[in-house]
Amino acid sequence: MLFNYDVVVVGGGHAGCEAAAAAAQMGAKTVLVTMDMNKIAQMSCNPAIGGVAKGQIVREIDALGGHTAEVTDRTSIQFRMLNMSKGPAMWSPRAQCDRAKFIWEWRKILENQPNLDIWQDQVRELLVEDGKAVGVKTYMDVEFKCRCVIITAGTFLNGLMHIGRTKLPGGRCAEPPSPELSESIARHGIRVGRMKTGTPVRIDGRSVHFEEMAMQPGDTRKHQFSYMGERSKLKELPCWITYTNPQVHERLKASLADSPLFNGQIQSIGPRYCPSIETKLVTFSDRDQHQLFLEPEGENTQEYYLNGFSSSLPIEAQIEALKLIPAFRDLKVYRPGYAIEYDYFDPTQLYHTLESKILEGLFLAGQVNGTTGYEEAAGQGLVAGINAALKCQDKEPFIMSRDESYIGVLIDDLVTKGVDEPYRMFTSRAEYRILLRQDDADARLTERSYKIGLATEERYRHWIKKKEAILHLTDFCRNFSVKADLINDALTELGSTPLTRGCKLSDLIVRPNITIYDLAKHIKKLREQIDSIPERKEEIVEAAEIQIKYAGYIEREKQQAEKMKRLEKLKIRGRFDYSSIQSLSTEARQKLEKIDPDTLAQASRIPGVSPSDISVLMVLLKR
Which class for 183: exposed (0-12), middle (13-18), buried (19 or more C-beta within 10 A)? Predict the structure, then answer.
């Protein structure tokens, strides 16, 4: 059987869902090939979306017209805005979701997306002709011919699960691996490596003594991920906090000889920022306790996820150790934690579009590029889907810069620096954090996405209306004069220095610990301005306040970004034979030859390329 499409997406995880929806939305005839339609967008690890920097990525996906944010909002059972005690560059949304409902909300979107078909099957081979990816072949001997293939196979490529000394082939628990696809890609010269990740035990909530744990409720202040759509109608549920203890540690240490991480059974590298419990015991041997979070898996299930207890120790070691925690003394589990090894492809072999430099028409997105996390995968999938559709339409590629999005930072890091461990996004990876806030992703990206045909007319008009509302409020605050005798009592009440003379309202807003809402209680005209905002009032007021309060910082980072853009405009790909430039350091020659950077700015970010090497290239460019 033979089918013809513009774009074939392999894998129905978070990257595959965003890729397929984006390509189809932009007019490409698309098919999503997935092993199990009932596990589309499965949350293989914790049932949560967002977190530090990850939440910013999800808001960017939403601003571009992707769907992860709206699915999260519809299935959320708890929402928290992290880092609110810090500046707005650090604020990061995070939501607990109902795992099962998350899958079905994604299915609704995909099954009702024009230009998109879904095929349940497993891909065994990438089809290549004359150095171009032209399709895939499945285990049912079905061939899909196309102009672009997007591989988003997650941890399924030669997946191998570890529980103590037991090894099981699998992409995740109870699901088979993909044993042949990786080799069919690698035979064309694409470098392959191995990585490892893990997941914790799943607990039966009926066996837990919740009264012996600390409750962690969600925010009382209402936020949501999507700039459009509705908040969740599901019941809000708390998370719970407990700790390991010395007795737990002793029981776990007694089984370290059977840990695949320490007995040589696992050779690949795991995520440094999400270590297993056995790694914590070895790395932080002086600690007598580690914090654990018990997270609900859904609105109507007893299944709980034990965040902080990722493990590949034998089953009996995991259960016996956990029973030494008072709240878990009568513990029953649905399944133990396990580790999984899988293949990934060196991402320095990709362009910023996520298209392969080696095989034209082949795009790679998600964990196959050496990343970890649903959010990082979804962001890559969206970019791959956009660029595959644009390639099918013979249009210019869509690339986001480092000062434009966290997704842009993520992809630039991958293709420029590569990975030596599973890559996870942090705010510290971005040099323009104040420009990449969670509140302004639509300001940065929606108009760009609308121009290429992804963001809908409705989303674009929604953003324009919001932009006008923010501008109207900020202009009012910068132009409205406040008299000292009318506001000083309020300032004293707020613990702020009284005025000696009148000032603009914005001069009061920039003061620490004073908000627009604080001032609105005492200034009628400001209160009327806020009340006149027709919808998403809190979001618009927050955005206006940030723009006023941090205007100086924002402007300074914009200037720094503009300086770097001068180097971004200096195209160097194909202009040098690096091996022949003896004035470059040996390491620089090797790295530049391997990565073949597109611009001088990208070259400057390659590890091992020094400022003096960049100066050499600038001199040669002038010649």
Answer: middle
Looking at the domain covering 456-556, what would its CATH class be? mainly alpha
SS (H, E, C) 215-238: EECCCCCCCCCCCCCCCCCCCCCC
Identify the pLDDT of residue 567: 81
622: pLDDT strictly greater than 90: no
**Which residues are CB-neighbours of 615 under 8 A, at least 6 positions away?**
none
Where in 439-482 does DSSP place strands (E)? 481-482
What angle is formed at CA 554 by the lines to CA 552 and CA 559, rounded to 5 degrees?
A: 95
Q: Distance of CA 363 to CAs 218, 418, 422, 574, 611, Å? A: 38, 16, 19, 21, 32
Secondary structure (3-state) at 494: coil
Q: For 217-246, what is the mean pLDDT? A: 90
Reference 151, options 126, 176, 120, 188; nearest CA is: 126
**Among positive and negative, which fits the CA dihedral 118, 122, 127, 132?**
positive
As assigned by CATH, the class of the 569-622 domain is mainly alpha
- pTM, entire model: 0.95
Phi, psi at residue 424, to the nearest 5°?
Answer: -125, 140
Query: In one letter, which amino acid is 518?
Result: D
Q: Which tokens belong to 144?
A: 């899909």
Has residue 220 got a pLDDT over 80?
Answer: no
pLDDT digits (tens, 9 = 90+) for 253-275: 999 999 999 999 998 888 888 89
Which tokens is 349 given?
């072999």
- Its CATH class, for the domain covering 199-219+229-338, is mainly beta
Q: Does position 221 have pLDDT exceeding 70, yes or no? A: no
Domain ranges, ordered by start, for the chain:
2-196+342-450, 199-219+229-338, 456-556, 569-622
How many other CB atoms are there within 10 angstroms of residue 344's CB atom? Answer: 26
Instruction: Report the alpha-carbon distance of residue 16 to residue 519 in Å, rounded.
Output: 47
User: What confidence score (pLDDT) does residue 170 get?
Assistant: 96
Burial annotation 511-521 (CB, 10 A radius, 16+ → b, else e): eeebebebbbe
| Secondary structure, 3-state, 70-89 | HHHHHHEEEEEEECCCCCCC
- Dihedral sign, Cα of residue 528, residue 534, residue 540, residue 542: positive
What whole-number percentage of the chain has pLDDT above 70? 100
What are the C-alpha distances in Å from 483 to residues 182, 476, 479, 515, 526? Answer: 70, 15, 13, 18, 14
φ/ψ of residue 461, rounded to 5: -65, -35
Domains 456-556 and 569-622 share a fold: no
Counted residue by residue, the chain has a size of 623
* pLDDT value of residue 82: 95
> Does the domain formed by 2-196+342-450 have CATH 3.50.50.60?
yes
Please answer whether residues 170 and 176 qualify as being in contact, where contact means their C-beta atoms are separated by less than 8 angstroms: yes
